[in-house]
Amino acid sequence: MSPRVLTPVPLTKESFAPFGTVIEVEGAQSYLINEGTTTRFHKMAVADTDEDGGQSIISVFRGTARAEPVEIKMMERHPISSQAFYPLSNHDWLVVVADAVSTPGPEHLHAFLATGIQGVQYARNVWHHPLLPLVSEQDFLIVDRAGSGDNLEELFFPETVIATIDR
Amino acid sequence: MSPRVLTPVPLTKESFAPFGTVIEVEGAQSYLINEGTTTRFHKMAVADTDEDGGQSIISVFRGTARAEPVEIKMMERHPISSQAFYPLSNHDWLVVVADAVSTPGPEHLHAFLATGIQGVQYARNVWHHPLLPLVSEQDFLIVDRAGSGDNLEELFFPETVIATIDR
Predict the structure, then answer these.
(1) Does residue A75 belong to the interface with chain B, where contact is any CB pair within 8 Å?
(2) CATH (domain of A65)
(3) Which of A164, B68, B120, B149 is the most buried (most CB within 10 A)?
């Protein structure tokens, strides 16, 4: 069986809304602060990390590119928190999410091409693929949760049902 | 009266410890995730935003450089939350904080030179100067608090007691 081929579409607030929040200056509420020297693009995302005494933590993920075409063999989700990613260097990157079904397959996947000035926050319990940079190495600032409770669920597709990403 | 002159020292975890957290990959706990394709530099800072039902929010501050020598005429603090800044472009920037006294003056100030791959999280109630980029424009990702309660206190120095920063 040939793999399902996903063609990424540009990441927009509207198209990503079922899966979480696009973190971008474009279209954000903004106002001047600090005696007019700084523009605050306000509250682009609200972390959802309080469940069961959790805390918001800040980490860096240093991601590397996978061989192309990128193969989507598994997905993961965080049942009790959001997870936000924002690129620290200005390069496009890939975002792959799945519909809100209990056991998604390749037919439930959606691929987005994010720019280097777009982050995403996956909403709680949204199936997503691990980080997919398109350059050899790219750092991301991460806001997710520390605390008790099992906050990771992984789903591996059967080998015959991978999807590949065609750019 | 001539202004007090502050000479910034390099930002380090040790020297900044009284004021908050340095957010940097260097020295952070790290481990491989995502089938070995990603390094997680874990929990470089823990947001302190839960007071009074507050939430962690993600914003961007687009800061601009001030005329040099930079004059320090005021300070601010957030009595019920931390506030984290991480640069989105790799340029040095200035961090100015004050000792934990109720009414700091120039004699209580400390200046740090942060690199473009160092962020800081000001701890709750720590006096700090608003954002001080050194290039014409620099974006920062911010993690701070939304919620009820008065979370901003500003202190303006008398005109005769400014400090300037000499680099």
Answers:
(1) no
(2) 2.60.120.480
(3) B120
